[in-house]
Amino acid sequence: MLSSVLYALLTACCIQNEQAPMSSSLRSILAEPGCVVAPGIYDMISTHLAISAKARILYMTGYGTVASHLGIPDAGLASFRDMVDRVAVMGRAAREAGIPLVADGDTGYGGLLNVDMTVKEYERAGASAIQLEDQVFPKKCGHTPNRPVVPKQEMADKIRVAVEARQSDDFLIIARTDARSDQGLEEALDRMAAYDAAGADILFVESPESEDELRLIGERFPHKPLVANMVEGGRTPVLDARRLGELGFSLAIFPAIGFLSTAKALERAYGDLVATGASAGKDDLYSFEEFNRMIGFERVWEFDKRHARD
């Protein structure tokens, strides 16, 4: 039986698969009061569902994308090409729907020349922003242990190169630091100040460990959009967008809710199928008819009708 969590999510998201109206740019959305939620997407089904839910911003999660595409941990094992190809597919759908896509660019996949190429390719692929982090390569998921960081100046240089490499000022550079877990909040804040000075458009302190720490981050950088990473089961308390907005955050990414809900649902559905030999609980499944609409079969059928031979 599908989990009630995913069933509710799918029901809410996809009763209709209308394209979202053309939205404002990412920069203008983040300039609005309060905090905007960005669901984590990791493949094209999750992308379509998030678009149908009328999300205003999409977040391509590195963890989920690597797990979905390659079935391996988010530990620096996926290549630049693996990721930019995924950006291109999801970016096309986001662009057609008029929704900005924020894409995880890990460490930039190498040195300064790699960062230059990564920014150019992510922008060309249809992302509206790239997230770059200051971990030592190979990087690890931000809510797992043992994440050493590069020297502050090395990352500041990457941010400067990223800003220089973009073709449009509407393509935003997100600077993330992972220093909090091993070096403490003050070091993380100091790094954020350096990356801010280097030209980052959006600042992201990964894995603060209390609401007080979130408040301090918001107080230190009131002049720039801030990212809060809400990972269910992670190191940071999961708050709603209203509270995060009060604390000074502009963007709340929920990278894991999609793949965690899907994994739970599939575990139950496949387990029931293998145990019983039948697709028990079919009333809880997402409608096959609605899924056909969501994935775009209606256009295929209409195309076939227009070009059918008598």
Automatic annotation (TrEMBL):
Cross-referenced InterPro entries: ICL/PEPM, Pyrv/PenolPyrv_kinase-like_dom, Pyrv_kinase-like_dom_sf
Signal peptide as annotated in the record: none
Gene Ontology terms for molecular function: catalytic activity
PANTHER family documented for this protein: PHOSPHOENOLPYRUVATE CARBOXYLASE, PHOSPHOENOLPYRUVATE CARBOXYLASE FAMILY PROTEIN
Protein name: Putative carboxyvinyl-carboxyphosphonate phosphorylmutase
Upper taxonomic lineage: Bacteria, Pseudomonadati, Pseudomonadota, Alphaproteobacteria, Hyphomicrobiales
